[in-house]
Model the fold of this input.
Amino acid sequence: MVAYILNTGIGKYIRGVCMKISYKKLWMLLIQKDITKVTLRRDLGIAPGTMSKLNKGEEVAMSVLLRICEYLDCDVGDVCEFVKIYNE
Done:
């Protein structure tokens, strides 16, 4: 089976399904732990461009997600998820 992957600007189009990454879980976790986005960025040394990507729901490097998980003592599934946008 061949996987067709196309970046549509709003997500990845894979086999007739458009998927988008969501960091909603990360933002909720920060609120629960009373940590601001500024504190997260400063403590982890996250580049402003990377923080912008997180805010826009764009892809970031797995190494960044792993640093966030280590900082928050959680699993990657606790900070992000893939959301189906539509079927064709």
Notes: The longest strand covers residues 81-87. Strands lie at 5-7, 12-14, 17-22, 81-87.
